[in-house]
Structure formats: structure tokens, C-alpha cells
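Task 17 of the worksheet. Students: predict the tertiary structure of the chain below and write it out as C-alpha cells. Keep your answer in the requested format; marks are given for formatting as well as content.
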Amino acid sequence: MDPTGDHEVGGGHAHSHGIDPATGAANRARLGIAIGIVSIVLVVELVGSIVSGSLALFADAGHMLSDLTGLIVALIATLMAARPATDTRTFGHRRAEVFAAFLNGAILLVVVVFVVVEAIDRLAGSSAGAVQAPLMLVVAAVGAIANTAALLVLRGGAEHSINMRAAYLEVLGDLVGSIAVIVAAVVILFTGFELADAIASLAIAALILPRAVSLMRDVLRVLSQGTPRGTDVDVIREHVLSKQGVVSVHDVHVWSITPGADVFSAHVVVEPRIFSENETDRLLDALCECLREHFDVAHSTFQLEPAEHAEHEARQHR
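Model answer:
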């Protein structure tokens, strides 16, 4: 076995840390299109809110501005993630996606707080003035159509990238906001009940909050190097132990660079014949293939060791 080839010294298995260039380019294109759509809708809603006197449209425009900022940050993050790994950043810049998602989640939470405070203020009796419901309805409908188009553009990348998922959720929040404004405009148009604005705002907050909390939870799981969602370490350990020649496994670690990019490492005690019969390559291939096929772990590192070495290792854990 050549220890300087694909199999690293100590039994480690080498893999590329880079992000798929085609996927990164596609995500950047999606974000660029979404940024263009959201920018146009933001201007339309801001002008519409001033002309119509609709506080709901103005609040939705503010929500749109926060989402536009999040989309721009997400685009910057994908550009950073595309940069190659270096000696100082051995996993590349993919973690930039996580920091961008954290900022996006924080923006969503700030929007929720603002909307709730403003809605309560209006429900408490603050005067909102006359609202031109027809113009409010038209502007909100335009926003809903544009946000739907942006969602369709972003949907392809949302399943595989936390950064794209954050962008998707922000635009989804915009769509929900537009629909709420449409409903409020219809109510005001036919009943004159202007507090429909405040009620619609609370509905928007109630829909956005769980998504924002879920996003922040995923971000904190990655930053704290917690076990990836849906990963059962005991099941992975059983798979490793089932391979021919494996005696025991310890010092098991599973974490994520970013959701969808999981990393695994472990110390594997093997039978003496694995070394004497040059079976290390075969075993490493079997272990790495197992992690890749059954647990979708693209990067795994195994340290193969004889029992006598494992016995004097300090501070072992499962």
C-alpha cells in the first residue's frame, strides 16, 4: 500500500472538499434572477404604499427590503463557497453559507418582531388614515405574482443548500405577505374594516416565525458541530462493525461543514491479518463506500489500527 496515495497515513481516506461548480453556478444564477424580481417588487410596493396610504403595503415593502438584503448576502456567500480549499481553509469556504443563513434567519426574526409590535399598536387604537384599497389590491397582486416566479426560480437549489433554503424561505415569506395584503385589501374594499391590515400582519408573523426558528436551529446545529439531522451514530457504528476484519470502533465523530456536506471520522481496530495481508485498501474502500451509499457522507476518514495500539490511546470515547 502506498501511504502517500489515495489512502492517507494512518488509514485515512482522501476526498475532495470542493463544491460542485455546476451546482454553485446554477445557484448563483437563481439568486441573480430572484434579486432582480424582488428589487422590482420592492420599488412597486414602496411607491404603492405611499400613493395608497396602506401601512400593510409599507410593512410588506420593509419585509421585502430585508429579504433583498438576505438574497444579496446569499449570493455573496455562494461566490465565497465556490473558492477552492487552501492550506489555511482546508474545507474551502462552504461554511460561508452557514453564516449567511444565520444572518438571513436573524433578519426574518427582526421582521417578525417589527410586524407584531406595529400590529399591536394599530389594534390598540392608533389611527392609520384612509386606505385606497383598490390600489393596495393591485400592488399586492403584482407582488404575489412576482414572488411566485422568484420561488419557482429558487426551488431547485433549496433542497441541497442551507443558504439557498434561507433565500427560498425569505421569498416565501414575501409571498405570504403579499397574499395577506390581498386578503386585507379585499376586506377593506368590501367592508371598510381597516384593522384588517393589523390582523393580516399578525398572520404573516405567525407564518414566518416557525420557519425562521427552524432555520436558526439548523444553523446552530452546524456551528456547534452537532450530529447532522437524521443521522444515527449507533447505526453507522453497526455498519462499520459489520465489515469483515473490523474488531471494534471508537472515537466516532460526525458533523457538517454545511447541511448536505457531512463529515465522518473514526478509529477502527482491525484484525492483524488486515495489515499482514495488505487488506487495508480493500477495507478502506468498503468502509468509505458504506458511508457514502447508506448515509450520504461524501467525506470520511478512518484510522485503521491494531488492538495493541488502541489499548494505549488516551481518552477514547465511543
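Marker's comment: The longest strand covers residues 246-258. The CA atoms of residues 13 and 180 lie 53 Å apart.
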